[in-house]
């Protein structure tokens, strides 16, 4: 992949993405597009597993589901990464949160879907999301952090 002069960090063809999501349908639908685009993808089905994998190999981006185990574990994961001193080394990793809460429970967040305290993520997408939209969001976030 071409490196643009002045970038702090080059985006390589093997940029690592960590997906923390128990929704296997979403994972299986998203994985081929990410791998085909040249990303190395690591999977976790719980926040605990996600935090462990994060410490084993630092990703360039984390995709996380809002609701896991019928709780708001994704929110807790995001807050931990952004605020817990134990995870300070990972606090600048872009977080892309996804959720199908609107489809499942007919609930949507009023106003902004990102909030520095309540939902400290870089971007939020509603599931289902097309592979094209997902790839564009991933690339936008990675480019923003490398600038």
Description:
The chain is of the alpha/beta class and 147 residues long. 37% of the residues lie in helices and 16% in strands. The protein has a five-stranded parallel beta sheet, with helices on both faces. β4, α4 and β5 form a beta-alpha-beta unit. The longest helix has 16 residues. 27% of the residues are buried.
Topology, element by element:
Layout: E1 16-20, H1 24-36, E2 40-44, H2 47-56, E3 61-65, H3 73-83, E4 95-99, H4 101-105, E5 123-126, H5 131-146
Structure in a nutshell:
The chain is of the alpha/beta class and 147 residues long. The protein has helices spanning 24-36, 47-56, 73-83, 101-105, 131-146; strands at residues 16-20, 40-44, 61-65, 95-99, 123-126. The two termini are 15 Å apart.
Q: What gap, in angstroms, lies between the N and C termini?
A: 15 Å
Helix/strand order:
EHEHEHEHEH
Approximately how much beta-strand content do the residues carry?
A: 15-25%
Strand order of the largest sheet: 2-1-3-4-5
Helix percent band: 25-40%
- Sheet of most strands: 5 strands, parallel
Strands, total number: 5
List keywords for this structure.
16% strand; disordered N terminus; 5 strands; 5-stranded parallel beta sheet; 5 helices; 37% helix; Rossmann fold; alpha/beta; 147 residues
């Amino acid at each position: 992949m071409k490196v643009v002069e002045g970038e702090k960090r080059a985006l390589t063809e093997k940029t690592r993405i960590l997906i923390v999501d128990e929704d296997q349908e979403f994972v299986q639908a998203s994985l081929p597009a990410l791998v085909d685009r040249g990303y190395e993808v690591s999977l976790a089905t719980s926040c605990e597993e996600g935090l462990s994998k994060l410490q084993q190999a630092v990703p360039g981006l984390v995709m996380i589901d809002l609701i896991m185990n019928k709780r708001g574990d994704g929110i807790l994961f995001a807050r931990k990464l952004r605020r817990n001193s134990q995870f300070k080394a990972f606090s600048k990793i872009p977080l892309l949160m996804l959720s199908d809460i609107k489809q499942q429970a007919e609930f949507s967040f009023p106003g902004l879907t990102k909030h520095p305290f309540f939902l400290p993520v870089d971007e939020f997408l509603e599931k289902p999301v097309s592979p094209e939209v997902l790839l564009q969001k991933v690339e936008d976030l990675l480019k923003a952090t490398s600038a």
